């Protein structure tokens, strides 16, 4: 399953987006004593249109990853259950698998 979490690091007018902790750990030392702010995003839905363009849509800076599906029918069923109009199956799935969720608290 794909989860997108990243950090926006801003020092003055300089803005950096770190897609993981390794990138963040490289950016922060490069600021060498400058004041900066850091904001964490848990997904694309938290971004305003300008930030979405900067992080995801701009063809000059975006990163594309190929995704493959081993079982298209199982993937389709899962997608339909999670995104479809039927609430009871989705609720049952969430309740059954809630302890397996990777939550940042």
Radius of gyration: 18 Å
Can you list the strand order of the major beta sheet?
2-1-3
Mean pLDDT: 87
Provide the β-strand percentage band: 15-25%
Gap between N and C termini, in Å?
19 Å
- The percent range for helix content is 40-55%
Keywords:
single chain, alpha+beta, 105 residues, 3-stranded antiparallel beta sheet
Describe this structure in words.
This protein is elongated. Helices cover 40% and strands 15% of the residues. It has helices at 21-30, 49-57, 72-83, 87-97; strands at residues 6-11, 14-18, 37-41. A three-stranded antiparallel sheet has the order 2-1-3, covered by helices on one side. The protein is of the alpha+beta class and 105 residues long. The mean pLDDT is 87.
Write the layout of secondary structure elements.
Blueprint: E1 6-11, E2 14-18, H1 21-30, E3 37-41, H2 49-57, H3 72-83, H4 87-97
Antiparallel strand pairs: 1-2, 1-3
Task: Write a concise synopsis of the structure shown.
The protein has helices at residues 21-30, 49-57, 72-83, 87-97, and strands at 6-11, 14-18, 37-41.
